[in-house]
Design goal:
elongated; Rossmann fold
Length: about 500
């Protein structure tokens, strides 16, 4: 359970006698044991910008205890030991999560897992009402807006209530925006911060990835004008935040395939018996032969009587559409299917293939798609209606290796820009990409705990498989603190992971 630390305890000094001289030595609760110092940073007015990660989003919702576990709130607590001021958060109204608009539930409740089981929504109805303004309690230091992409922070209409139905505004920002025409960046800058954190860009690729590469939620291009391209937008963000001399810390973007939302469900979880294999292999083998006849590579694997057969998936990025080829071939020997049947099979498998688990061509099955595997598709023939086995999983249910490559290219470009800006501006830089990669490949150990990306049990991620758990946020906060100390000569002490729970319980 998270402990409520008092500021004095954080900087408490211990007096010890030194050898024969009885000289009292003060040992401070800092990173180096010396007297607390902010170095050449000024934490008196700390403002944080970003998305759900900055806000403290967890378990597929924003709620009070999650907001109190955000890495930014942890940073503010540590900053208070060296002169940091009040850090106001636009708290949600409850720990149920989600919100209502005009009394109608719009999002939430949060998810929770009991005994390591599958996450389910907690009971209750969200009491946070977007129509009820809380701007009178501001301005708020935590300007993290769940769902925000980089260019959203520049939009003057992002806090407009009327824009929610149009898709141009964000309900979370509407709650604390000072008016309908002030951008998130302008709101943050108006507070004249002395120190800021900026972690933005995740959603610029994540939205595309979590929708299975849906082009309606495109990757933000690196190039382009501010408000369109990532690079120019990032320049405006940092230039504005540093215009009055503020120092700060910025972080790069992790690869999306390091989080359990993409890695938990294996690409080969299909159990088949000998009878099923004997029926399916000739069918898939025949389609491989059809492809070979036109110089195309095989798309279907040889199945075995085991529990580790690959999923059948749709891949819209396949450059060759085999619909016409399959339709024609199924009408001929040895199948001799009527046109209606051949056309059905051609359309069903024309852009289908078995999922790949090879490192260079790894596909990823979305966590939200897992429940459909092995279920039947209504209205389809019994031989072709088992999802993931004889009926291809929809393209939006997976992130194919071609889509992964697009996401990686964009992420690398964003990260190059972020690192270059950090160097040019003399800002603290956090390599969260390296951190998340380490968590996903063996884990990170600290305070007697090893944090991994294992879903539910690893300690690093919440039940939505994307956002950190309280312990995960604490680990991230410590990495931010390390970067701040290194850059500005401060000696802030990181928090103990032991003081942060792995997951939130159903009841809070």
């Amino acid at each position: 359970m998270i402990k409520n630390f008092k500021w004095l305890l954080l900087v408490a000094a211990t007096f010890m006698a030194c050898n024969d001289n009885d000289v009292e030595t003060v040992v401070y609760n800092t990173s180096d044991g010396l007297a607390p110092t902010a170095g050449n940073a000024n934490f008196s007015k700390f403002v944080s910008l970003g998305n759900s990660l900055t806000a403290g989003y967890s378990d597929n919702a924003l709620f009070i205890d999650g907001q109190k576990s955000s890495y930014t709130y942890i940073l503010a607590q540590q900053f208070a030991t060296v002169g940091g001021g009040e850090f106001k958060i636009p708290f949600m109204a409850d720990n149920i999560g989600g919100f209502k608009i005009n009394g109608v539930p719009y999002a939430g409740p949060r998810l929770a897992s009991t005994g390591g089981g599958a996450p389910t929504p907690v009971s209750g109805t969200p009491s946070t009402e977007i129509m009820t303004s809380i701007v009178s309690g501001g301005p708020y230091n935590n300007c993290g807006v769940p769902g925000a992409k980089s260019f959203h922070l520049l939009s003057p209409s992002y806090g407009s209530l009327a824009g929610i139905s149009l898709g141009t505004a964000n309900p979370y920002y509407v709650r604390f925006a000072p008016n309908a025409t002030t951008s998130v960046l302008a709101y943050a800058a108006s507070q004249t911060p002395t120190f800021f954190s900026l972690w933005i860009g995740n959603n610029d690729v994540l939205g595309y990835a979590t929708s299975g590469g849906d082009d309606s939620n495109p990757i933000t291009p690196s190039a382009g004008a501010a408000g369109v391209g990532f690079d120019a937008t990032y320049d405006v963000l940092v230039n504005t935040l540093t215009a009055s001399g503020a120092k700060g810390v910025i972080a790069n973007i992790p690869y999306v395939n390091t989080v359990p939302f993409f890695t938990y469900i294996a690409t080969n979880p299909v159990p088949l018996n000998a009878t099923q294999v004997g029926s399916l292999n000739p069918f898939f083998g025949a389609m491989n032969s059809m492809l070979a006849s036109v110089g195309q590579a095989a798309r279907f694997q040889t199945l075995t009587a085991s529990s580790t057969n690959p999923l059948l998936i749709a891949d819209e990025m396949l450059t060759y559409d085999a619909t016409a080829l399959f339709t024609a071939a199924f009408q001929g020997a040895p199948f001799n299917y009527p046109l209606s049947t051949a056309s059905f099979l051609g359309a069903l498998y024309g852009k289908a293939r078995h999922a790949s688990n090879a490192s260079a061509t790894r596909d990823y099955i979305l966590l939200t798609s897992g429940a459909t595997i092995g279920t039947t598709k209504p209205g389809y023939p019994a031989n072709n209606n088992t999802i993931g086995v004889t009926y291809p999983m929809e393209d939006k249910a997976t992130l194919t290796y071609s889509e992964v490559a697009l996401v990686k290219t964009a992420t690398d470009a964003y990260n190059a820009k972020i690192k270059a800006v950090a160097a040019a501006k003399g800002l603290a830089f956090v390599d969260t990409n390296a951190l998340m990669t380490q968590i996903a490949n063996g884990g990170v150990s600290a305070n007697g705990y090893t944090v991994t990306s294992a879903f539910i049990t690893g300690g690093g991620f919440s039940t939505d498989g994307v956002h950190p758990s309280p312990r995960g946020y604490a680990l991230i906060a410590n990495k931010f603190i390390e970067a701040i100390n290194l850059t500005y000569g401060s000696n802030l002490k990181g928090v103990s992971l032991a003081d942060y729970r792995i997951l939130f319980p159903k009841s809070l």
